[in-house]
Write a structure and sequence with these properties.
By secondary structure, the chain is an alpha+beta fold. It is 33% helix and 24% strand. Helix 2 runs antiparallel to helix 7 and helix 12 runs antiparallel to helix 14.
Length: 510
């Protein structure tokens, strides 16, 4: 545990709002003894008092559907359960880096199965925080106190949801009255908070709202940020929905659903690629074919390579220009691909999503060299073997491409934490094994694998390559974690299939 703070920082006092001793107005029941204690002790304190339920689930909402017509704009939200598990695990684990008086097992039970009410003072010193905490321990509904780490993005986002409206100074409570509220009503409510003393009523324009300032990342905050950023997976349809929300004034009417369970395969028709985009004799497509040949060394026979480059790059696409037509949703997406010669290029791709829910490529417009800077943080990857390689060189290259794709899939991967009764959250996730099953052992590729002592014979038929990978940093997963093994196996198998080798990725829990 971090040493106790010596300066004024935000301290949150947490309460079990489901406790039977509390009324339906549990917020008032929780704050009243604190204010009475401050009055009785005549403590010198100047602080905002923020209140509200602790709402980690709000951070885990996902867009399911959006709709706009002349009457309404509607957003239907879903829930990311795996991300929620990470948020809870992060919150609990991050407490070890700050001062707190919480029973972690009790806190975990209440944050998952109940509602935790929070009263936070934006600045308390060491002595006062300890005094209030000691006093509150006599209350059965009190869970404990926590020093908020403003340098941790998770703490910042959670505790910034609390509602301001009370200010304590010179042993007097100042209460905000909003413009649409009756002052006498607010006075009545304020008197419930703190009896026998005058309440100073402040109107909105005289109230300086408090917001928890985002400080420089703390050491523990860097861990939280890394895990959270790399756990978030944004579905392609979600990007389209976000674009519509951010530009809703542009569109008079629309309806769009996000099917997050659907694994998107972007359809690049062979005919469109070979007879148009890569056809130097096509009346309209010749200039584009020239671009692909001269800049990227992608020829007509490389159409599958181009299709895979586009498909893979769409994971990082930047959505633009959405239109709704009787035939489906049309939009453009800017992407970065890599050529056969390892040179990179930007493409503006046009797509349509019809009733099949599959994005289908309409056309491609080559970008300019200066546009590369827009995608400098996005790494491109090749997954299809060069056509001029044969024999052992070809098989070695295929294995190299598959292995590199597998490693890319587990780069920065964050498993879903596992929870066991009586234990701290296990960030490495569930344990297990994964492998790639090549369906036929009678292929030249398997012969090459045998010669190089890679894999083993399947108990039924075919050949098996077991996934054995070591983590670079066991802070995020270890050699027993099943999720990175599955991710590696899936990408490895995908590359083999792209190169004409029939296989499946499989796994099991340990």
């Amino acid at each position: 545990m971090m040493g106790f703070f010596e300066i004024n920082i935000m301290i949150a006092f947490l309460f079990d709002s489901d406790d039977e001793s509390l009324s339906s107005f549990y917020g008032l029941d929780c704050i009243r003894p604190i204010l009475q204690y401050l009055e009785d002790k005549d403590l010198i304190l100047e602080s905002h008092i923020l209140r509200g339920d602790l709402l980690p689930h709000v951070l885990c909402r996902k867009i399911n559907k959006i709709k706009k017509d002349e009457k309404i704009f509607m957003t239907e939200l879903g829930f990311d359960h795996n991300f929620y598990k990470l948020i809870i695990a992060e919150l609990i684990d991050s407490m070890s880096s700050v001062w707190n008086t919480l029973n972690i097992d009790r806190f975990l039970d209440k944050i998952i199965n109940g509602v935790i009410y929070t009263i936070a003072f934006d600045k308390l010193d060491k002595e006062m925080a300890e005094e209030i905490d000691t006093f509150l321990k006599s209350k059965v509904f009190y869970l404990g106190a926590l020093a908020v780490d403003a340098g941790n993005p998770l703490h910042h986002n959670l505790f910034n949801m609390l509602v301001d409206g009370l200010y304590y100074k010179n042993n007097q409570l100042h209460c905000l009255v909003r413009l649409d509220e009756d002052i006498e009503t607010v006075k009545d409510v304020a008197e419930i908070y703190k009896e026998n003393n005058d309440i100073n009523i402040l109107e909105t324009n005289n109230f300086d709202y408090y917001a928890l300032k985002r400080e420089e990342l703390s050491e523990r905050g860097r861990v939280s940020l890394y895990r959270i950023e790399n756990k978030i997976k944004t579905h392609h349809y979600e990007k389209i929905a976000e674009h519509l929300i951010n530009n809703q004034d542009v569109y008079e009417e629309f309806s769009f659903a996000v099917d997050r369970d659907q694994k998107i395969q972007f359809y690049c028709e062979e005919k469109k690629l070979r007879e148009y985009l890569l056809n130097v004799d096509h009346k309209e497509g010749a200039s584009k074919a020239k671009f692909f040949i001269e800049l990227l060394d992608i020829k007509n026979e490389d159409w599958e390579y181009l299709a895979d480059q586009v498909n893979n790059a769409m994971r990082f696409a930047k959505i633009k220009n959405i239109t709704f037509t009787p035939h489906g949703v049309k939009y453009t997406a800017r992407i970065k691909i890599i050529g056969r010669n390892l040179k990179e290029a930007i493409l503006t791709t046009a797509w349509i999503i019809d009733n099949s829910k599959v994005p289908r490529l309409v056309t491609v417009i080559p970008g300019e060299k200066k546009d590369i800077a827009e995608f400098e943080d996005i790494e491109t990857i090749n997954r299809i073997c060069e056509q001029d390689l044969v024999g052992n060189e070809k098989f070695e290259r295929i294995y190299e491409l598959a292995h590199n794709a597998g490693l890319k899939a587990i780069d920065k991967l964050i498993p879903t934490p596992m929870f066991l009764n009586g234990y701290s959250p296990i960030f490495q996730g569930m344990c297990g094994f994964a492998w790639i099953h090549i369906l036929s052992a009678r292929t030249p590729f398997v012969k090459w694998l045998k010669i190089n002592n890679i894999g083993r014979k399947h108990y039924n038929k075919g050949w098996v390559i077991n996934v054995n990978i070591e983590p670079d940093n066991q802070k995020y997963w270890d050699w027993q974690s099943i999720e990175p093994k599955e991710a590696y196996a899936n990408e490895f198998a995908k590359v083999l299939k792209l190169n004409g080798i029939e296989c499946i990725a499989d796994s099991r829990l340990d």
